[in-house]
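Consider the following input, taken from an annotated entry for Spectrin beta chain, non-erythrocytic 1 (Amphibalanus amphitrite).
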Amino acid sequence: MSTDGSSGYDYLNQKEDVKNFETGRIKALQEERLHIQKKTFTKWINSFLIKTRMEVEDIFTDLADGRKLLRLLEIISGEKLGKPNNGKMRVHKIENVNKSLAFLHTKVGARHLFGDVTGHASSASGRFGKVCLVTAHY
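Applying the prediction step yields:
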């Protein structure tokens, strides 16, 4: 260490730089993971919706009104869920999402529906749970 104490200062700056780099890298990796999950899940949804000539480009916006989500659930389950509300108001969108959630709750139960929202769901019910949570948020 020099007599003026500069090496201690340099060490603290270097330590802070490393911390900032690590924090930035972790954030970038998290964003990349989210992007990949979103892209993969969008393709998975579209593999079903193609049967009805529907398509999802962004799961966060395209499923928010609940209409495509209801249709997706009908396709996968083979059951009719009724006609979605086509209104434009928030209350109409919430009604469609609630109908989706109610259907999922009766089919897979709340424990399975909301049990795995970490991004590691291996079953369709876990994936549906995440979509419903996301759409219900909006």
